[in-house]
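Following up on my earlier thread - several people asked me to post the actual chain instead of describing it. Fair enough. Here it is, all 183 residues.
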Amino acid sequence: MRWDRLFDDLEAQLVLDEVLELESEVADRTRRERALLDVHTRLLANVDTPQVALRLPGRVVSGRLVDVGPDWALVEPAPERPVLVALPAVRSVSGLGAGARMPSVVAKRFGLGAALRAVSRDRAVVELVDVDGHAATGTIDVVGADHLELAEHASDERRRTANVTGRLLVPFWSLGSVRRLQG
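Reply from S.P.:
Thanks for posting it. Predicted structure:
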C-alpha cells in the first residue's frame, strides 16, 4: 500500500511538471509572437472600430478607424471628413480591441507618401497640423520622398496663384495630421 502511494505521488508530480513545462512553453511562444507585432498590425485589426482615439502632441483625433497604412491611419471624426494621421506623431491610442492582422505585401508599401499623393491629386483644400500643433491651410502641391510642399491659402478659397500667400515645406517626420476641408 505504501509503495502504491509513493508511485501515485511520483506520477502526479510528473504530470504536474509536464503541465507546468507546457504552460511555460505556451507563455514563451506568446511573448515571442507579441514581440513581432507593431502598431500597424494592431491598428489594422481594428479597422472599422467606431471610436478610437489617437493622441498627438496637444490634441486628440478620435472617430471611426477607416484605414491604416504602415506609417499612417485614417480616422473619420465626422462622416466624409477623414483625418490622415502620421503614425510617428501618435503618442498613444485608446479604444482598440484585441488582436492583430498582418498586412498584405501591397499594403506594406502603401506609405504616407502614397496617401498624401492621393490627396494632392484631388487638389483638395486641407488643414495640415504639425507635431507642435502649428496649423496651416492650403493645397498640397508636391509630395516628395520624405516631405510635402503646401501652397498656403485661405481655407475658403481654391488654389489660385493670386490666392497663395506662401509655400510651406513639411518633412514627414514633423507631420501630425492632414484633414480635407473641401475638394
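The first strand starts at residue 52 and ends at 56. That should answer part of your original question.
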